[in-house]
Specification:
Largest sheet of chain A: 3 strands, antiparallel
Strand order of the largest sheet of chain A: 1-3-2
Number of strands of chain A: 3
Distance between the termini of chain A: 49 Å
Order of helices and strands of chain A: HHEHHEEHHH
Strand content of chain A: 5-15%
Shape of chain A: globular
Radius of gyration of chain A: 20 Å
Oligomer: homodimer
Number of helices of chain A: 7
DNA sequence: CTTGGAATGTCAACAACGCTGACTTAAACT
DNA sequence: AGTTTAAGTCAGCGTTGTTGACATTCCAAG
């Protein structure tokens, strides 16, 4: 089988973590772990009329209150039509509030309502619980490595978004 | 904001990697990294009539040739109707071969054809290239931590599937 | 040998959530 | 005044997930 073929000999220090076999295991680990990552919020959302896209919108509006639609578009990496469909239902259901910009009245600034914040809490509590258990099980050094590899895996623009959110954070 | 609140005081050794803020960063890192993880195969598949579901089926059939439909169902975690739609097109297009089981003739054993293997190569080459760069950038210790955290994040059944694939591997 | 259940496949209908393309409105910039 | 930008909308389409109902095939237990 193609995956079993040998790599070039490791030069100097061990590069065994770069064999096709290790890479394949990394790929499959990503696949299975992401399923777990989304499982808990998905279960909560299944009962409501919402899906993963609503979760993502709510998460990032909570993360950066007052963000514009355009900004959210860039973070989420979807088309405005796709995002708009989600935002429309969230605004209609009273979870998100859209305010016209003060300086630039073309812009809409997005905020969670109390109800929206409540759902965000519920969803992220569930997701954090799993992440917390995984982090606790794995230990600090593993967590640092986890973060390092994930950052290296991002597209450059996504890495910028990620770091912009980090900086504006705590 | 709720995410900024304090945790219980770290007891003894540092548990700072378990603050809500760290957990949130882990969650966002997962989100952005998974986008990168799927970006390259998605680009290749967009030109064809296939999507991510086809990629997953092809990947795991290549990984475990002769696997039954039921086994694949458990690994992928979708309904048989959903998988069947994907398999039907792959079989019709000559990428996958379905053989009736010898012992149990109800079962269908799945294999990639030469053409199927060619596509699998193309897709996993692209995905491995990104993983390889990320692994090389991050270094061996980070990769070990990455794997540890991802495994801890999986649902138990998924972890079993993951490890079963590991064992049958090299 | 018949029957119950398991594995598989298929049809229909539906929902979530991506996409493109075309178009409007309003505001801002030049 | 004319162009560009931000946002919203409508229509339509594709992939991928879901349920529910039903047929077929075949193993295995009574």
């Amino acid at each position: 089988m193609a995956d079993g073929r040998m790599m070039a000999p490791p030069s100097g220090e061990s590069l065994l973590f770069l064999t096709d076999e290790h890479l394949r295991q990394g790929i499959e680990a990503m696949f299975f772990a992401y399923r777990g990552f989304t499982a808990d919020p998905d279960r909560i959302l299944a009962d409501m009329a919402y899906g993963r896209a609503h979760h993502r919108a709510i998460h990032f509006i909570n993360r950066a209150p007052g963000t514009t639609v355009n900004n959210l578009l860039n973070i989420l990496g979807v088309t405005k039509q796709s995002l708009n469909r989600v935002l429309r239902t969230l605004i209609a259901d009273g979870l998100v509030q859209s305010r016209v910009g003060r300086n630039d009245k073309r812009e809409r600034h997005l905020y969670l309502t109390d109800e929206g914040r409540a759902l965000e809490q519920k969803l992220s509590d569930a997701q954090r619980a799993r992440m917390r258990l995984a982090f606790r099980t794995a230990g600090p050094e593993a967590v640092a490595g986890f973060r390092t590899v994930l950052e290296a895996m991002m597209d450059p623009e996504m890495r910028e978004s990620f770091e912009r959110l980090r900086e504006s954070g705590p």
